[in-house]
Amino acid sequence: MKQWMLAGMMVVAMLVGTACAADQQPKPNGEMEATIKRVVDGDTFELSGGEKVRMIGVDTPETVKPNTPVQPYGKEASDYSKELLTGKQVTLKFDVEIKDRYGRLLAYVYLPDGSFVNEKLVREGYARIMTIPPNVAHADLFLEAEREAREQNRGLWALEESQPKESSEKKTSTSGESKKSAQSSEAPEGKLIKGNINSKGEKIYHVPGSANYDRTNPEEWFATEEEAQAAGYRAPKR
């Protein structure tokens, strides 16, 4: 009898353990607890289990991308994320897509005190917004956070504010060249969003990583989605 009871208890324990493990698996619109082993750069980190995680909706200046120089304010953003996240137990919340094309988990990150890390990076000026459908649950919040950071000249926006402004005479003399440079495959510094006018005359912008980004020939380049929208462009419908 005792052996039967012991065996039964072991089976129950195994079932409970399996259920708990299943609850910790990433799934659309789900969440999981995790420990951060190390921060790769401002918007990417590695979990204790070895999985790489890319934070949704934000884009910090590059520091470790191959064949790409360290971008302005990249080190500051990376250091900020390292201080904020290294060794921390966090909650990862997922949107519609679980992983990107590089196999990294895509997540919104929350600290034990409830702080929303993705938003903090944008609001404190360490990141620009980068909205890629269908992961758009917090797109409006990020847009509002970036607007505040720009208005307050925080972080990387302070760098832009300190850049010398072109004279109106120079702008006039180079206006004819701007259209030509927009058609170049190389983006102007700090501007990665492509604005394109389709055959119907619709103005549509494409962010890095979106479905049609690589094959889009831009009419204009933009630094942020807010800037593109202000110029009359909209996001793709799909």
UniProtKB/TrEMBL annotation:
<keyword id="KW-0732">Signal</keyword>
<dbReference type="InterPro" id="IPR016071">
    <property type="entry name" value="Staphylococal_nuclease_OB-fold"/>
</dbReference>
<feature type="domain" description="TNase-like">
    <location>
        <begin position="30"/>
        <end position="159"/>
    </location>
</feature>
<keyword id="KW-0255">Endonuclease</keyword>
<dbReference type="GO" id="GO:0016787">
    <property type="term" value="F:hydrolase activity"/>
</dbReference>
<dbReference type="InterPro" id="IPR002071">
    <property type="entry name" value="Thermonucl_AS"/>
</dbReference>
<dbReference type="GO" id="GO:0003676">
    <property type="term" value="F:nucleic acid binding"/>
</dbReference>
<dbReference type="GO" id="GO:0004519">
    <property type="term" value="F:endonuclease activity"/>
</dbReference>
<feature type="region of interest" description="Disordered">
    <location>
        <begin position="156"/>
        <end position="238"/>
    </location>
</feature>
<protein>
    <recommendedName>
        <fullName>TNase-like domain-containing protein</fullName>
    </recommendedName>
</protein>
<keyword id="KW-0378">Hydrolase</keyword>
<dbReference type="InterPro" id="IPR035437">
    <property type="entry name" value="SNase_OB-fold_sf"/>
</dbReference>
<feature type="signal peptide">
    <location>
        <begin position="1"/>
        <end position="21"/>
    </location>
</feature>
<keyword id="KW-0540">Nuclease</keyword>
<dbReference type="Pfam" id="PF00565">
    <property type="entry name" value="SNase"/>
</dbReference>
<feature type="compositionally biased region" description="Basic and acidic residues">
    <location>
        <begin position="162"/>
        <end position="180"/>
    </location>
</feature>
